[in-house]
Amino acid sequence: MDKILCGVDIGGTKLSTALVKQDGTLIDKCIDCDHVDKAECELIDQIVYNIKKLLKKNSLQETDLLGIGIGCAGHIRFRDGVIITTSNLKGYKDYPLREAVQANFRVPVILDNDANAQAYGEFKFGNGKGYESMVFLTISTGIGAGIIINNRMYRGMTGTAGEFGHTIVEPESPLTCTCGNRGCLMAVACGMALPHLYRQKIAKGMISKLDLPKDFDMSKIDGKLLKQGLDIGDTVSKEIILESGRYVGIGIYNIFQALNPPLVVLGGGLMSWGDPYLAMIKSTFYAYARDMIFDPFKITVSTIGPDVGVIGAASLVLET
Ligand SMILES: [Zn+2]
User: Fold this and answer.
1) How close is the Cα of 316 to the center of ligand 1, in Å?
2) This prediction's pTM
């Protein structure tokens, strides 16, 4: 039997663990939602426990594993397996997570940024199959990305390459990013911008068809709500969605000029906005790129589905 992969995705709400075949097929998974407030050592115990529990449940042993890949949001110093900073968990500053997990297993443990993990998963098992180079962009509360060049992840000097969410697209924007700068792509285009954009439209006198209670907490305006708005023909929701699409299109144009990849794959919760969103992203990109595309170039949407985080984490094992 081919050895199998283990993936762990440390998210802001879910801690997912999965066993995955080398072709990307999910064998089994478990999801916890109580990890966020745990101290570092408790989280390590939980990760180790989940992996061992899944192995046992599937009558497998550690020797059946090729390795363990872990994806975590934040800045990761890849070669050392250290979390430099993460906004998903409290603490964990300069925390050597890979070493702490590795102490419990003999098979190799790899730690990378969650967007890099998803990008590699997409490259191995998704729409990136057959390509040598691609860029993956995940658009949800924030914007993350991963770069694959000539069949390898490109991680840069520290491991933080591909932070396109922090590239600045609107320096005079009133919207401040989590990094402190104004007008980062993720500050103006994704989940974290939606409450501001909604308030702005209402303040301008636009009337939304969304039936929100009078005392509705506007900070709760999210992608799902705007999708409902889009479906009932609400102009406020539609304008915000198209505005986001325009900025993402500009972001992809900048990526295209910097890296000239043949493929950009889009994933993340906001892609559920569907065709009008994707059409705006593409039309903005092509309007800027005009006649500067000299070979086949494609923008497409991830088809791996909701398990992309944990399947991506598992795929990291295949990189070496
Ligand atoms: Zn930023």
Assistant:
1) 26
2) 0.94
